[in-house]
Amino acid sequence: MDPIVSLSILLLLFGISQTSPARKTSHHNGFSPIPGNVDITTKILKSNNGSSEHLMEGDLLFPKTKNALYCYNNNCFWKKNSSNLVEVPYIVSSEYSSSDVSIIQNAMSTFHNKTCIRFVARSFQTDYISIENKDGCYSYLGRIGGKQVVSLKRTGCVYHGIIQHELNHALGFYHEQSRRDRDKYVKINWEYIPTNQASNFQIQNTNNQNTTYDYGSIMHYGKTAFTNQTGKETITPLPDATVKIGQRQDMSNIDILRINKLYGCAV
């Protein structure tokens, strides 16, 4: 082939490649991992910095009608339908792009594939989740009745793990380190926690479903959550301080087991 013709073809192909939109591999098939070596808690707390909401434990909306976080009886859980599936109606704000919606729906798919939870598009249901682009990543704890907001700020919260974390809150799950037996498994380093943030490490009266403490839970704080000194740990695993906590990818097997036990899923 004539060298000039060959060069022209190469330049043409290069021009096409430059004008074509690059494929975002991090969003392949709707899966969007948090970039860098950042755990879910760190990303959530950064996104929630400056939020106008009254948040407990960093990302739990405080109900105006209650004086404490409370979800350990049937009143705050979503109900089964006649097919023994737990339907959680939801709507998604029109502020999200089609890519955002794909990521949100993909995060929901793990619940659909491995539990009896079904997030379904709302039609006429009174109780439902409204996923909105507000000022952070946060949710109410369990079903509170009527419209309840799950906030997923577009610029910091639309990631697979964060979405699953907030949806677990909406199903009624606390943070893992809030378990009533947590002091057997982690040490809270109070000296690195600001006084005004100490309430975020309060032990809750949780129903652990007779499951073991899960260092790998998507609901576990990272080691430096709320620290007042860069790099200093507020949570140290016991007895092995090198155990990794604060993941950023996907629900653990124990997370899934707990959902199934709590909601009586036959899977």
UniProtKB/TrEMBL annotation:
<feature type="binding site">
    <location>
        <position position="165"/>
    </location>
    <ligand>
        <name>Zn(2+)</name>
    </ligand>
</feature>
<keyword id="KW-0645">Protease</keyword>
<feature type="active site">
    <location>
        <position position="166"/>
    </location>
</feature>
<dbReference type="GO" id="GO:0004222">
    <property type="term" value="F:metalloendopeptidase activity"/>
</dbReference>
<feature type="domain" description="Peptidase M12A">
    <location>
        <begin position="67"/>
        <end position="266"/>
    </location>
</feature>
<keyword id="KW-0865">Zymogen</keyword>
<feature type="signal peptide">
    <location>
        <begin position="1"/>
        <end position="19"/>
    </location>
</feature>
<dbReference type="GO" id="GO:0008270">
    <property type="term" value="F:zinc ion binding"/>
</dbReference>
<dbReference type="InterPro" id="IPR024079">
    <property type="entry name" value="MetalloPept_cat_dom_sf"/>
</dbReference>
<protein>
    <recommendedName>
        <fullName>Metalloendopeptidase</fullName>
        <ecNumber>3.4.24.-</ecNumber>
    </recommendedName>
</protein>
<feature type="binding site">
    <location>
        <position position="169"/>
    </location>
    <ligand>
        <name>Zn(2+)</name>
    </ligand>
</feature>
<keyword id="KW-1015">Disulfide bond</keyword>
<keyword id="KW-0482">Metalloprotease</keyword>
<keyword id="KW-0479">Metal-binding</keyword>
<dbReference type="InterPro" id="IPR006026">
    <property type="entry name" value="Peptidase_Metallo"/>
</dbReference>
<dbReference type="InterPro" id="IPR001506">
    <property type="entry name" value="Peptidase_M12A"/>
</dbReference>
<keyword id="KW-0378">Hydrolase</keyword>
<keyword id="KW-0732">Signal</keyword>
<dbReference type="GO" id="GO:0006508">
    <property type="term" value="P:proteolysis"/>
</dbReference>
<dbReference type="Pfam" id="PF01400">
    <property type="entry name" value="Astacin"/>
</dbReference>
<keyword id="KW-0862">Zinc</keyword>
<feature type="binding site">
    <location>
        <position position="175"/>
    </location>
    <ligand>
        <name>Zn(2+)</name>
    </ligand>
</feature>
